[in-house]
């Protein structure tokens, strides 16, 4: 498929989350300043390995301050926290302003440069970052040959008329389609050693452009199937496919069948 010269801007969204976190901390620290004691803390560390001595500075012209006895531990800690928080607030202010300046020039600007054009002009241009619709179209142009079905295999068909191998795979395929998640059924995967392997589904997270293998383990109450499933997962791990990173696994037994809600939760977690 046609590769994007520049993937979508995921960093700005993460930075916005970070800015929101910083803003919440700023709000808490500003509120805490109202209840903090007046003045600042000076710590003197006499030579000879003696314990530190603490002084309360309330007059800016008094550089020495008033001695605080160790019995006033609460005041010492409050003053130390106040001094730290004041420096933190200044740093937070600098970072928040920097984020705002960055967002002013980065926030979706490259994508908007293309999407704000007229359709006539868009048709003449290949943007460096494809729209989601363009990326899906390119991704779905790929053709492949899946595993053949034996003559004795039962026929299970999705809502789109695609043949799969189980009722559970019908549920997965139909849920993916209903939630507009592009997928390829039994798309051949080249593993170490050159062998082809056929995962149940190869799914696309459109927003991140990340592909996930989806395997459904449907007969885990059968010993031989369970052993084969463990070997399959190990094979994926050996080829750098790991659960939660680029591998999705759904499971069921006869007593605990898979349901649409479970499939939707997996899709929401990894593919939406």
Protein topology:
Blueprint: H1 11-35, E1 40-44, E2 53-57, E3 66-68, H2 73-106, H3 109-115, H4 119-122, H5 132-139, E4 156-157, E5 163-164, H6 167-178, E6 183-185, E7 189-190, E8 196-197, E9 201-205, E10 210-217, H7 223-238, E11 247-251, H8 260-270
Parallel strand pairs: 10-11
Antiparallel strand pairs: 1-2, 2-3, 4-5, 6-9, 7-8, 9-10
Low-confidence stretches: none
Secondary structure category: alpha+beta
The general outline is: elongated
Radius of gyration (CA) equals 30 Å
The assigned CATH architecture of the largest domain is 3-Layer(aba) Sandwich
CATH class of the largest domain: Alpha Beta
Beta-strand share of residues: 15-25%
- Please state how the strands of the largest beta sheet are arranged side by side: 6-9-10-11
- Order of helical and strand elements: HEEEHHHHEEHEEEEEHEH
CATH fold topology of the largest domain:
Trna Endonuclease, Chain: A, domain 1
Q: Characterize the main sheet.
A: 4 strands, mixed
Report the average pLDDT across residues. 94
Give the total of domains. 2
Helix content: 40-55%
Query: Helical region count?
Result: 8
Determine the N-to-C terminus distance: 22 Å
Q: Say how many strands there are.
A: 11
């Amino acid at each position: 498929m046609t590769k994007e010269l520049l993937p979508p801007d995921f960093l700005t969204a993460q930075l916005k989350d970070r800015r929101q976190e910083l803003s919440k901390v700023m709000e808490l620290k500003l509120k805490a300043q109202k209840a903090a004691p007046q003045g600042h803390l000076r710590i003197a560390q006499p030579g000879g390995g003696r314990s530190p001595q603490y002084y309360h500075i309330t007059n800016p012209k008094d550089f020495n301050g008033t001695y605080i006895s160790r019995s006033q531990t609460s005041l010492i800690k409050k003053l130390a926290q106040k001094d730290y928080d004041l420096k933190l607030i200044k740093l937070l202010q600098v970072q928040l302003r920097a984020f705002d300046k960055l967002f002013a020039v980065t926030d979706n600007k490259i994508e908007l440069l293309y999407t704000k054009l007229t359709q006539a002009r868009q048709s003449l241009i290949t943007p460096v970052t494809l729209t989601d619709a363009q990326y899906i179209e390119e991704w779905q142009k790929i053709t492949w040959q899946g595993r053949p079905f034996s003559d004795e295999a039962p026929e299970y068909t999705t809502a789109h008329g695609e043949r799969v191998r189980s009722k559970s795979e019908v549920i997965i395929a139909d849920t993916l389609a209903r939630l507009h998640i592009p997928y390829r059924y039994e798309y051949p995967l080249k593993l170490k050693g050159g062998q082809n392997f056929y995962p149940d589904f190869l799914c696309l997270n459109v927003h991140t452009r990340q592909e996930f293998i989806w395997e459904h383990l449907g007969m885990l109450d059968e010993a031989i199937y369970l052993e084969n499933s463990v070997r399959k997962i190990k094979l994926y791990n050996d080829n750098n496919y790991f659960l939660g990173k680029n591998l999705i696994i759904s499971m069921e037994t006869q007593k605990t069948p898979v349901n649409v809600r479970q499939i939707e939760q997996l899709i929401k977690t990894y593919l939406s």
